[in-house]
Design goal:
Blueprint: E1 12-15, E2 18-21, H1 32-36, E3 39-41, E4 44-49, E5 52-56, H2 58-71, H3 80-94, E6 99-107, E7 121-128, H4 135-140, E8 142-146, H5 167-179, E9 184-186, E10 201-206, E11 209-212, H6 223-231, E12 238-241, H7 246-250, E13 254-259, E14 263-272, E15 282-284, H8 292-305, E16 316-318
Parallel strand pairs: 8-9, 8-14, 11-12
Antiparallel strand pairs: 1-2, 1-7, 3-6, 4-5, 4-6, 5-16, 6-7, 10-11, 10-13, 13-14, 14-15
Length: 321
């Protein structure tokens, strides 16, 4: 039996077309994905609006979900419309006003050779109430460190897919960053430029320009990142998609992590462990406090996700309609 202690208010999960009690186990320990990370997933959020809970950019998330499944050679037995409906149903079944939603598609029990020739493709969806991923640090300003290990490169794997096994690199470096007293890690790519965080994109602001890097920099082009690039001009910000060097980050007026889980988390200090792990140089971003434009972006993003900006209502999937 499983407790929901760290999955606030979760009562039911959806598995292969049925709802199960949160504490009810359903998977065999020899499930292929448990051993090799042969899975794909999405992180999606539902927000409370005046019209009830609405899921932010649900279609785009499910489009990417199916793309990721194709990258890991999965033949999916569900349609996109069925998965979209299941994501809505999990919110209703649990009675959530707002929640984090986690669909997971995986190679299930069959064989344990590396090639899962006898493993069916199965789908599970959970949801729970979850605050911003980086918590209090994400509000006061994240103290990050550039880790020595380089991000997996886009010449090695299609990084437009969210694949479970890839995230072991994120887990290891996220743990190591916190063991050293930092709030989060930053990866460089093999070229030595800024890639992303373990589970977040990185953006900088310099002279009124919001800059994000592209998929050529070995990143997942996050849906939050893409949304911010579209919202930013409404605030008078110019946008730029171009490589970000370490120097660009250190000399930025503002910087932040962004993603579905992290939302928008200002970055205020960065230690560079990429060349000196024992005594890394420390850089203050801007004033050393969450930047004014970053906070304005965060507020604008909140208005969009909670249905207070009609221009972007197209991004909301209302659960009860």
């Amino acid at each position: 039996m499983f407790s929901n202690t760290h999955f606030s208010k979760a009562k039911k999960y959806w598995y292969m077309g049925r709802f199960y009690d949160w504490s009810e186990p359903t998977f065999h320990p020899m499930t292929h994905a448990f051993h090799y990370g042969t899975s794909t997933f999405e992180g999606i959020r539902a927000y409370l609006t005046d019209r009830g809970p609405a899921i932010f950019r649900l279609k785009e998330h499910i489009d990417r979900f199916f793309h990721s499944a194709s990258v890991v050679k999965m033949k999916v037995s569900f349609t996109k419309e069925e998965v979209i409906q299941a994501c809505k149903d999990i919110i209703k079944e649990n009675g959530f006003d707002q929640a984090y939603i986690r669909p997971l598609m995986f190679y299930s029990y069959g064989n344990l050779g590396l090639v899962p020739v006898h493993c069916p493709i199965e789908l599970v969806i959970g949801a729970w109430e979850w605050a911003a991923y980086l918590g209090e640090a994400g509000e006061k300003g994240v103290y990050a460190c550039i880790v020595p290990k380089r991000r997996i490169h886009n010449s090695q794997l299609d990084l437009s897919a969210k694949l479970g096994g890839v995230y072991v690199q994120s887990t290891i470096n996220g743990i190591e960053a916190r063991e050293r007293g930092y709030d989060e890690a930053i990866f460089l790519n093999l070229e030595g430029r800024i890639a992303e965080g373990p589970g977040e994109n990185i953006c900088i602001i310099k002279d009124g320009v919001l800059q994000a890097n592209s998929k050529s920099e070995s990143i997942l082009e996050g849906i939050t990142r893409t949304s911010l690039l579209e919202i930013a001009p409404d605030l008078g910000l110019k946008t730029l998609v171009a490589p970000i060097t370490k120097e660009d980050l250190f000399n930025a007026d503002e910087a932040f992590f962004c993603g579905t889980a992290a939302e928008i988390s200002p970055m205020t200090k960065v230690a560079d462990m990429s060349e000196n792990q024992e005594n890394p140089p420390l850089y203050t971003i801007g004033t050393g406090k969450p930047g004014i434009l970053t906070l304005k972006l965060a507020e604008a993003y909140k208005e969009v996700t909670t249905g207070k900006n009609p221009k972007y209502e197209k991004w909301l999937a209302f659960v009860n309609e």
